[in-house]
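Journal club prep — side note

Before the paper discussion, L.F. wants everyone to see what a predicted structure for a comparable chain looks like in token form. Sequence:
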Amino acid sequence: MNGRRGPAYWLLAGFFALFVLFLYGPTLTILVLSFQGPQGGLTFPMNGVSVHWFKNLFEKQMVGDFAGSLQRSMILGVAVMLVTVAASFAAGLAFRSRFTGSAFIFYLAVASLIVPSILISLGIGLLFRVLGWDAAWYSSAFGAHLTWTLPFGLLIMFAVFNRFDRRYEEAARDLGATSWQTIRFVVIPILLPSLIGVGLFGFTLSYDEFARSLYTSGTFNTLPLEIYGMTTNVTTPVLYALGTVTTGVSFLVIALALVSFTWVRRRRQRHGSDAGKAA
């Protein structure tokens, strides 16, 4: 077999290198520039090295309410994550059996994926105004984010349940387990990695969402809106410090998800080993 690589290989390798460059190049640039000295600017060359702009980031009078917007986005993301996981799991259980109107409900649920996000945000904001309610990040923005995260959660759980072997449930029922016990002690432990994945998906989609927050967050900004506002009036490396912090939060969430996956896998291996010894 000829060990020489053809043009197709080098073309694909070059495309992948460009993809990695465009994906991580800006992030690395922002990371480096966020450590500019106190007299540093928005571009290279760097004028000293310090953590000055990270300290400046939390000074509300200088760069806006970053700490408050981060807290709001974190709370909103966790709330959206929990509702997305619970609703997607319940829908996955329900849609395993055909019922009247199931197809209509499914397409109605995922229709928001094809509607421009800005229109959904505008529509929800107008609806709250017509009803005389004040738009807020914990109410109207919460609902707007669910129109984005729930369809993805539903699609993931439908795919997971299509591969789920229902004989596990039948075995549990034969051993005397109730419906709730079967779900709690059999179905959920088996699907736990997928549920963690849905939760991670839901949190990140909400945490980074801009368009569906634009007209629904009310008086107080979420983090993406605060970042956008800062780009219009902040011309110091504090913007890069903000980018570094938010990227760090994203990686922290991913790390927590990986730790959860590892814990679930080791727990299963330990239980399998204990069951084998008992046998």
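L.F.'s comment for the group: The mean pLDDT is 86. Keep this in mind when we get to the figures.
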